[in-house]
């Protein structure tokens, strides 16, 4: 799901999110130097440059100064015409929370990702196999509850259905920032989504049953909607 659109909705929903700036590839070619200065002033360092519509951390670069920023944007532009630059939250825990449901979603216990690289990039997720997870995450009870609350709020604000994984950054002072929502989270043997639900006393088989039931429920709702419209008066005759 588009990261830029998500950020705007998070702000409207009152969910804290890191500072960000965004630009299209066409605008960057015209006003790139101005955008670099805006990022330096409004977002700061370090920051992360991301394609707005890409998953699995593909095309993401951590940037530490303005000299690196232009190159990072060009890398992201290989994968999308819309680019987002997001503030890096220093010394934050990478926290993930699973959400399940349609109109009345619920959230799992949060888990922590301990990346084998400087950040949780594609290689750390899928290649080197060295990243680890702590489930439940080592968070104070009130912070963990707030993470779950924000996860459900984000799910509902985006009008999602079925499942999603919500990613957060949490500082040592307990400040919570939503990073993004993954609407089709990984479901492999190493994926966090089923692991998080397993730790929330929802085993894999029951999770699959719940997802099937939710899909059927949402299909029934959609099938009741009208797909055509007949005006009362044919004014054009």
Molecular structure report:
This protein has 237 residues and is of the alpha+beta class. It has 2 domains: 69 residues, ATP-grasp fold, A domain (Dna Ligase, domain 1), CATH 3.30.1490.20; 131 residues, ATP-grasp fold, B domain (D-amino Acid Aminotransferase, Chain A, domain 1, 2-Layer Sandwich), CATH 3.30.470. 38% of the residues lie in helices and 22% in strands. Strands 5, 6, 7, 8, 9 and 10 form a 6-stranded antiparallel sheet that branches. Strands 1-4-2-3 form a 4-stranded antiparallel sheet, sandwiched between helices. A hairpin with a 5-residue loop joins strand 9 and strand 10. The model has no long low-confidence stretch (mean pLDDT 92).
Overall helicity: 25-40%
Sequence of secondary-structure elements? HEHEEHEEEEHEHEEHH
- Count, helices: 7
Write down the CATH class of the largest domain.
Alpha Beta
Strand percent estimate: 15-25%
Task: Give me the secondary-structure topology.
Elements: H1 3-12, E1 20-24, H2 25-42, E2 47-51, E3 61-63, H3 66-76, E4 82-87, E5 93-101, E6 106-107, E7 111-114, H4 122-127, E8 132-134, H5 141-157, E9 162-170, E10 176-182, H6 192-199, H7 204-223
Antiparallel strand pairs: 1-4, 2-3, 2-4, 5-6, 5-7, 5-9, 7-8, 9-10
Short description:
The protein is built from 7 helices and 10 strands. The chain is an alpha+beta fold and 237 residues long.
List keywords for this structure.
four-stranded antiparallel beta sheet, single chain, 7 helices, D-amino Acid Aminotransferase, Chain A, domain 1, 237 residues, 2 domains, Dna Ligase, domain 1, 38% helix, 22% strand, alpha+beta, six-stranded antiparallel beta sheet, 10 strands
